[in-house]
Structure formats: C-alpha cells, structure tokens
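Priority: medium. Attachment 1 of 2:
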C-alpha cells in the first residue's frame, strides 16, 4: 500500500574527501529496527528494498538513493507513528555493521543465495572489474577534490564582500514573517543533490512534497546562501521547528545548500550554475544584493578561472561516473548469474515480516 508521503534523498555522497556516509542520521528512537543487507553486487539488495516499500504500509517513506546511480536505492526509512524501520545496503562503500545485533539490528545476507562454483569460473573477470571500479572511484575523488578547492576559493573571496549586517537583518525579517513556534526542535541531515554521469541531479521531487512555499536563493558564488541558510536554520531551531538540512556534496559539512521546515510549510533552495533547475512560484532572493560587487569585481579574473576550471573538472568526473556505472553493471551481471532467485524471495518475505511487526508495535 503506498505511503501518504514519499520523500527522496541521498544519505551518502561522493565528495572532495572521498565517499561520505552520514551513518549518524540512521540513529533515532528505541522503537526502531534496522535491517542491514549484505551480499555482493547484483544480489538484489536494491530490489529487496523496493519490494519492502511496496508491500509494507507506512505513514511516510524516505527513499535513500544511490549517489552514483540515483535510479537505484541504498536504503529506505519507513515510519508509522513513533515507530520506524530502516532498511539499508550495508556493503561498501557504505559499509554498516550492527552495534546491537538481534536487539536493534537484523542482518540479512543475500549472498547466501550465491553459487560459488559459478563465481569461481568468473573469478578473473570479477577481480579485474572490481579493481577497475576502485581505480575509477579514486580518480573521481581526485577530480572532486580539485573542484572543491576551487569552489572553496571562490566562496572565500565572496565571503569578504558580504554585508553580514544587511544579511542578518534580512534573515530576521524573513523568519518573523514565515515562522511562529513549532512543535519541537529537531534536525535531519541529508543530501538532496549528487554528481552523476548526467551531471548534478536531484533526488526526486522532494522540495515540492515537503513545503508549499519554496524560496530560491540565486547565489553564483556560494557564500551568501550558506550564511543566510545557517541564519534561518538557527532561528528555526530556536523557535522549536524541526528542520531538514541538506548539505552540498562539494562541501559536505560547511556548505548548507537547501533547508526545509515542513511544519511551517516553507523551504529554501540554492540556485547555482551547476545545480539542476528548481521550480518555484516565489520571487528569488538575489544573493548579489548582499555583496559588495565592486570589491568582488577586483577578483573577476580569478573567479572566472575558478568557474571554468570547476566546470571542466566536474565534467570529467561525470564522464568517469558513466564509465564506473558500466563497469559496475558488468560486475553485477556476473554475480546475478550465480544468484538463486528463490533465496532472494525468501529474504524479501522475512524483511517484510520484520518491518510490519516493528511498525505494528
């Protein structure tokens, strides 16, 4: 039965620091149950997650997409009342191990259905493909590190030109208009965008599902939006609102990119050259109004170089993501030939039973 609300996010990201997984965001209440999936590529982990979502009734579902292949799932979070089930692919690069096995977490190993005799015949090809995938991943992260350094350089230049007093006054007026008092301060950290073979993409149509009013912030330099969103975030939490903070994969700890306050029905999204279009009926917030453009103009050549170089670096990273996806698909195909589908069906039934039992209380 479909959930009343389905949201789409990433919980992991390929970043300038390598692959980053926000495991801390999977921890919550005592009524939770975590189903951790194990097994090699092509064993049906993403398929199992989708089947659980389709078969188990929930009030709300978060689909956690794979940042390298957004059509695939790394996990899902199903909620009903104060009860929650997290089902997650616990294999590298987002390896997850139980801390309280059998009490909070349950391991489901789809690799039990693999015929190792079939895999032995494919050993040479599998090893070569796995090594190539690791090599491509390393190259991607080096390109992202270079692009991240240049984006950070541009943001630092822009920060020196920000009129922080004017920005603070604007944030206060905006929050007085949009926020009153919420039902309890809380924060979820997510990624809404990911760099893929198709460039930077969104995880579904989440903004419009969460909030009726979306303010776009036009910020070509990456400084104003971070300061403004952080100011709104702090005010929202101080007014006892639950917020969803979405960070930029290119600055996964400092670069607040989008902010949603569902209880107030309002959200804020950053619009930059490298971002996909985010439609909004509200008038955009022009980030340039908070900048001393004369000061920033003195660094026009440096900013222009950074922009062109970042475009080239991210373009090459996207190309490598496409190559890596082809390698991973070939690896999955070899494992799939060794997989017993009946075993995957049995694991799906068990996962659905555990999820339903947890949500029912």
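Attachment 2 of 2:
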């Amino acid at each position: 039965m479909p959930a009343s609300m389905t949201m789409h996010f990433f919980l992991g990201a390929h970043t300038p620091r390598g692959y980053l997984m926000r495991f801390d965001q999977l921890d919550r209440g005592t009524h939770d149950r975590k189903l951790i999936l194990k097994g090699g590529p092509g064993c049906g982990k993403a398929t199992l997650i989708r089947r659980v979502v389709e078969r188990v009734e929930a009030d709300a579902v978060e689909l956690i997409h794979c940042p390298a292949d957004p059509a695939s799932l790394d996990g899902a979070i199903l909620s009903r009342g104060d009860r929650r089930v997290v089902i997650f692919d616990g294999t590298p690069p987002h390896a997850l191990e139980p801390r309280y096995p059998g009490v909070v977490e349950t391991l489901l190993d789809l690799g039990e259905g693999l015929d190792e005799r079939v895999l032995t015949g494919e050993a040479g090809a599998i090893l070569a493909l796995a090594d190539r995938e690791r090599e491509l991943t390393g190259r991607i992260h080096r390109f992202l590190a270079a692009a991240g350094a240049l984006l950070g350089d541009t943001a630092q230049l822009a920060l020196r030109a920000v009129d922080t007093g004017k920005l603070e006054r604007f944030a206060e007026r905006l929050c007085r208009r949009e926020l009153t008092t919420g039902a309890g301060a809380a924060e979820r950290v997510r990624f809404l965008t990911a760099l893929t073979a198709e460039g930077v993409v969104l995880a579904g149509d989440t903004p419009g599902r969460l909030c009726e009013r979306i303010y776009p912030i036009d910020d070509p330099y990456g400084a104003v939006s971070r300061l403004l969103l952080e100011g709104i975030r702090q005010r929202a939490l101080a007014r006892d609102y639950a917020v969803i903070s979405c960070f930029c994969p290119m600055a996964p700890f400092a670069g607040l990119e989008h902010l949603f306050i569902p209880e107030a029905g309002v959200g804020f999204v950053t619009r930059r050259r490298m971002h996909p279009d985010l439609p909004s009926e509200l008038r955009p917030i022009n980030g340039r109004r908070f900048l001393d453009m004369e000061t920033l103009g003195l660094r026009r050549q440096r900013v222009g170089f950074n922009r062109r170089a970042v475009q080239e670096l991210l373009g090459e990273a996207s190309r490598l993501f496409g190559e890596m996806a082809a390698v991973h698909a070939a690896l999955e195909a070899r494992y799939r030939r060794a997989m017993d589908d009946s075993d995957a069906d049995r694991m799906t039934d068990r996962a659905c039973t555990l999820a339903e039992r947890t949500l029912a209380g």
